[in-house]
Amino acid sequence: MPKKKAIQKAFLILLLMISVLCACTSKQSEPTASSAAATTAPATSADSTSEAAAAPTTSTDAPASSVPLSATVEEYTSPSTAVSVDSAQSDPNDIYDSTGFVSVSEVIPDVILEIRYYSTYNFIGDRINGYEEPVALLTKEAATALSGAADELREKGYRLKIFDAYRPQVAVEHFVSWASDLSDTRMKPYFYPEVDKSQLFNYGYIAQYSGHSRGCTLDLTLFDMNTGKEVDMGGPFDYFGTLSHPDYTGITDEQYQNRMLLREAMTNNGFRPCGTEWWDFTLINEPYPATYFSFPVKSLS
Known about the structure:
By secondary structure, this protein is an alpha+beta fold. The protein has two domains: 2-40; 60-283, 2-Layer Sandwich (Muramoyl-pentapeptide Carboxypeptidase, domain 2). 31% of the residues lie in helices and 11% in strands. It has helices spanning 2-29, 33-40, 50-54, 104-107, 140-154, 169-180, 188-191, 253-268; strands spanning 101-103, 112-113, 137-139, 158-164, 217-224, 229-230, 271-273, 280-283. The strands form two sheets. Strands 2, 4, 5, 6, 7 and 8 form a six-stranded mixed beta sheet that branches. A two-stranded antiparallel sheet has the order 1-3. The protein starts with a helix and ends in an 18-residue tail after the last strand.
């Protein structure tokens, strides 16, 4: 009997050990919450700038370009075939008539778009009224002139990157309404840290009308095809301050020359530079100099 009990006890101990071993194996093969998150979380670029890390996240859903950003000077010398621009014009007395406008991407297929007012990363922090799609529209005359600047810069290894082009009057009214609400300063650290919001009208940063609504003004920068990066202009787009003045002296020689490179190409092709914003240019011979259009920013049928 003692021998039989000893055997039974040993058998029970063996079953217990097997049970514990199976339980441990099962736990090790089961992903923990942290390991699952690590599997699905997007990787963070090691060379992300501190400014980008501090900025609020945004989704533009904007097509960058019909030509890959990775395309270099050696890989192509001209963009895909552009569409021909007809001569049909808008009625200057009808602010909703888009007949005389064209999508810039159709005229300059390798243009890069980052339409900030379609996104939430702008000085207001919301998508702006009137921006229904992340496209850039201009009058046919302005788009044709811009294609000349694009050709000139492409030969030097650069592509155009547009932040804004035609801006409907309803969007300008959104700016005015926001500027009147002094309590909304969500984006102040990023776009106007040196300016009191109550002074935006006095300093001319916000106005009742904008040249963009006439369809011949655009905001843009350069993209370097050799480095695969946006060119360093010494200051970000839509920054309210003297840093944005084209002739600001507190930047490096290289940053200043980058500004002048863009300025030269634009002025060579019929555009007038803005004295307070390095990114802002207006076609000199505007077809609708007194019409502030208000049709939405979206693909033209």
